[in-house]
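My convention is simple: the sequence line spells out the residues, with the fold written below as integer tokens. I include a record here:
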Amino acid sequence: MSEAKKQSSMASLVIVLAVICLVSAAILGLINQVTVGPIAANTEKTVQESLRTVMPIDGDYEDVTDQYSGDPVTVDVTGVSVPVKAVYKAADEGYVVETMSPNGFGGALDMMAGVDNDGNVTGIAIISHAETSGLGSKSTDPEWQAQFKGVNGTIGVTKDGYQINAITGSTITSRAVCDGVNAAIAVVETLG
């Protein structure tokens, strides 16, 4: 095969590859445009359901995130810096705090914790996570989450001398949830 034919063949391959990349990028862009609205609506629905789960009230929740300001807002608890995504006032009952606990086994856990005016946890909800199926994903189990109700002060797993029973085989995820709850309690203390 001559050198000219090799270069021509190579150029053809490059052009074909470039066209495939452009078509793929265009399809991905189109899919993103089509799904961005439904994903945002689904996320908002999940947030609203989580608010009602962690602190049920009659009426609406008031977004008071601006009262706990900073960019990005973080709370340092038990040696971990936990970003605060949103803070909602739940009528006269207390607050619901959405955090992004950064240290889950599979990554960050987007979660909410309700904290009443006395500093007691009223409930927790996991909004999204990337934890291992069958292990860390058990953090979404209502039975496991129920042990947080009524606790206050610094929260942690029993393995570390605290009151929360860790998920079997998933202590890292359990600690991350506790960090998120501790951050929520710290936020409410500053607002209370």
The chain has a mean pLDDT of 85.
